[in-house]
Write a structure and sequence with these properties.
It contains 4 helices and 15 strands. Helix content is 17%, strand content 32%. A hairpin with a 6-residue loop joins strand 14 (309-314) and strand 15.
Length: 353
């Protein structure tokens, strides 16, 4: 594990490579700040248990569902894969009751609209929609006896029909042919029509049992398990992205994998142990978890002689790697210079235009 002396030596070698040799000492010529990097994820298996009264219309086979006595005491093995959801439906032992409906006959009741007859009264004929029964025939007025003389001016052929009541030519309404009424299209003149509620059956489904004639009630429980995946990243801010990304790619990380309810292994520093433990606090309803961590110490070195640079050092499989980044002050200076250049360019373009 790197210490302050190793870090300063790595920075000194890097400065020598850049032709800028310095004698670095703490705290006079260098300042070292350590960051504990922790990454990974935790997959928790969170369980909820609910119990409800169920009602089913008709028969139902519940024999394939597991039975329980007390829901809180029912034991269900942990899933092999915590990333997959799981749902189990149970039936409380002795709660299944099947009943026949007492208010109907096999799910049917007499149709209230037609009183069980299957049909409804209907007018066999209706007043003609075209002549309204008033001028059904220009000679007999639908009575059958010619009570009028031929009207002045012969009616054009095609607009009137031969009256079926009195036989007058070109005198009757084309629709009713002198009768003044037309046959009902619903009942076709029968005087009764099919009941639309029961479709002539005389019976309708009993609403209380939904036409099934029997009901089944039982107490049902559901055990649901859902994965809760929590990414781990510490610290969330404070370490520049380039330094963290290079450490992620080339750094020598120490990995820790915890399954089920494993505890943290021995040998971890208090720093990383406390960090990891803060993420392992159980969630409400958690019955198990799997965690994968990796950790690494990253050093931040400031050298007063180089106020515009910051050196980040992390361990690798061979030797410590040094990343040189501009300081925050230098970053602001560069941003201000770039903004000033853009402003000058904008003013020049305005003057030219």
């Amino acid at each position: 594990m790197l210490n302050d002396k190793d870090v300063l030596e790595a920075v000194r070698r890097r400065l020598e490579e850049r032709g800028d040799g310095l004698k670095l000492e703490l705290p006079n010529t260098a300042k070292v700040t350590w960051h504990a990097l922790l990454e990974g994820q935790i997959v928790r298996c969170v369980e909820t248990r609910t119990q409800d009264e169920r009602l089913h219309y008709g028969s139902i086979d519940l024999s394939d569902r597991p039975e329980y006595d007390a829901l809180s005491h029912y034991r269900l093995a942990l899933p092999k894969d915590f990333t997959k959801a799981q749902k189990v439906t149970l039936v409380r032992r002795g709660s299944v009751t099947e009943r026949s409906c007492d208010d109907c006959s096999n799910g049917k009741k007499s149709c209230p609209r037609c009183q069980g007859r299957g049909d409804l009264p209907c007018e066999a004929s209706t007043v003609c929609a075209d002549c309204r029964g008033i001028d059904s025939c220009l000679r007999c007025e639908g009575a059958g006896d010619r009570i009028r003389d031929a009207p002045d001016g012969q009616q054009p052929v095609g607009e009137r029909e031969v009256c079926r009541r009195c036989g007058a030519l070109d005198a009757a309404c084309l629709t009713c042919r002198g009768r003044g009424r037309t046959t009902c299209t619903t009942c076709e003149g029968r005087g009764v029509r099919d009941c639309p509620d029961c479709d002539r059956a005389g019976t309708v489904p009993h609403q209380s049992c939904k036409g099934a004639g029997r009901t089944v009630t039982w107490t049902e429980a559901t055990i649901s398990r859902k994965p809760m995946i929590e990414p781990v990243k510490h610290p969330k801010v404070g370490v520049p992205y380039p330094a963290r990304e290079l450490a992620r790619e080339s750094g020598k990380w120490h990995a820790v994998r915890l399954t089920r309810k494993d505890t943290l292994p021995e040998g971890l520093t208090d720093e990383f142990r406390n960090l990891a433990q803060s993420y392992l606090a159980p969630h409400e309803g958690e019955i198990g978890r799997e965690a994968t961590f990796k950790h690494l110490r990253l050093a931040r070195v400031e050298v007063p002689q180089h106020p515009h640079r910051v050196y980040y050092v992390f361990p690798t499989d061979s030797s410590p790697q040094v990343v040189i980044l501009p300081s925050q002050q230098r970053t602001w200076q560069i941003a201000a210079a770039a903004l000033g250049a853009l402003l000058v360019l904008f003013l020049l373009l305005r003057l030219v235009s």
